[in-house]
């Protein structure tokens, strides 16, 4: 069995290999035939039957047919290649053009040349330069010669269609230059040449070289004007002009005159300042003259530079700014004197500020100092400028002289002054009338020490007699010592007060003796010793200043040993106050709160109890609980207490929130597996929430697993399809109560498009919920925009009537003329119906009817008159639209203007029988909105038969 399968496969492969060459050969043959036929087509390009005599063209067609048939009959590529096309070639060569054909085709080819020039934008010869136009003309002539040289109709027909036939024309067109462009180029180049001497001044150069330059410019301008090619203009070589400019020679005579003029201008400018030398200091006037000289030197220097131009030298005016500056620097003798006087005054003020007294010094030293002051004033007066006077530092010289003066102090004057001051001090003490026995010995001794110090140490600190004379500080020192004198009673009172202060110091410490085991040996002993020290003091001041007891008592307090039993009792009481505090803060029983929050409170209480245990000061233990932060840890824990009821409420709210995530979802919209994933996620979230013991964890619970499961919900295809089908049926039903024939085709088509678009939109929605929520606003809009079918819109384009809209009467036909009294009505009912598009009316499923003025159906032959109504009815016979006819002058409604209309108009004009509606409109012939005599006259004219 296996061997048979192998043989079958080999036979199949052999068959394929056999067929492949045949397929390839078939393709090659088809290509060869196509190529041969294409070769024939290409041989015939340009040959048109009308160009040749009949016999030759028939021979050609026979040769073509024979060749194509031979190609079709060939069974292989070689056969196709063997088809002989020589007969076609011979027939083409034997063709004879008809009479006048060649000449006509040559004329056409030449016309195509002219047309090509126009296509390329070539205009009249007058718009171009003669040179470029001559080149184009020569090219056109050569091309026409080429055309004339062609002898066959085909060649003539094809001329101009080849890619390169008009290359020579294109090249000539590209070289065309307009006369306007040439003129513009000449204007620009001449302006360039003329501008070469814009910066030059004729008077700066010798007349010979200046004339040579202007001649070169004139020659260049003339040469430019003679050019006829833009490139020659733009590339014009005006080096002869630049050479002439380079060869200009400066006029030395003019240069010398320019230097004189420039210097004179300097002198004139100075003279214009109206300055008088005597009014200024010699120094500043000399500087001013130096500036004037320097400015003139600048002029000479500028003129000496090679290439210096007379016009530049003449125009030199830099001297004005320099002279203005120099004038500003001039200093008047009055200002200089004032500056010297101010400096001398400053010297005097400085010396006065030193507060020196002549009698403090030896006469020779004082005289030398005065000489130094005079020298400084002389130095100031000999300065050159006010600035130098102002800037001079005279203080250094005077300070140096002062230093020298201080080495000449008068010792005799100093000794006398000290002796006199000691006597004055004794007199001051005597004036106090003090008796030694009234005071304690210690305080009296202190007074005597102060007096002696004032007469010796205090006076010895002075180096000048004037300082000693001015000294009065002894009074305050002695008065203070007198003030410090103590009586025995004052000393006793001071000692008692200090001991009281010692007792108060201990009391202020807030210590309780019973709290310590060694109170007597430490604090009590320190107090006793401090009071003994006070008793040993001999002056009130010493008693009042005594404060060493504070350190002694503090040291003793530091040596106190707390009684452990007392401290333990105090700590037990402090811990008991914690429970009372919790009650005060409203903390209920442990069972009210969550396990986690109650655990936090217990931890806080333990922390506070540990803090109490760590205290070693009995007073600190007693005070614990009164401090602002003693229970801060407990307060924080109380704030975190959470009741079990609040936790349960939070859990309930959060679980409701989780379940609410699917409130807008319909189970049937999704696959069973994806919906189960959502419900499983919700169950897991509820279990996790129930396990939480902290409200913040509950309210902040991350239920993203549920939202992810919702996001991953897979829409049930069947549910989606059912929802889409239902919605599309509802959309279609929105137009069920509407009748197409009652509306215009465009608005009805817009409605159908809106319905179709809405259905398409529904098909694009991805979920049943989105489908159910979809609102077909576009359909609603299209329904609201439906345009009722109006008869006035169905008037034929070539109709004799026109429909107009009257604000009161609705649509009217008012352009039918009334027939004269002896004539026939202009239009019958059948004629009126014929004014409207019957095919459109039929297509809409409608019919048309004409009613007479009484509302009865009119016969086709009934004359149309005022009051005739034409109606459009739908398939149910309901009136969709109607138009009323108004014929001016036809008041009685018979289509004529006659006696009956006269009567009705006369009654209306006299108000005997007023007219209304369309009949009033028919009577208002003169258009003034009423029936009156004017209308009667017009009616008479209308009713008169035409002659």
Note the total helix count.
Answer: 45
Structural class: mainly alpha
Shape: extended
Q: How many domain units?
A: 11
CATH topology grouping of the largest domain = Type 1 dockerin domain
Work out the radius of gyration: 68 Å
Total beta strands: 5
In round numbers, the mean pLDDT is 87
Which stretches are low in confidence, meaning pLDDT under 50 for 5 or more residues running?
1-24
Task: Please provide a written account of the structure.
The protein has 947 residues and is mainly α. It folds into 11 domains: 21-94; 105-176, no CATH class; 180-246, no CATH class; 252-330; 334-409, no CATH class; 412-485, no CATH class; 489-558, no CATH class; 564-641; and more. It contains 45 helices and 5 strands. The chain has a 5-stranded mixed β-sheet with strand order 1-2-5-4-3. Helix 21 (411-430) runs antiparallel to helix 22 and helix 43 runs antiparallel to helix 45. The longest helix is centred in the first third of the chain and has 42 residues, at 2-43. The protein is extended. Mean pLDDT is 87; it is low at 1-24.
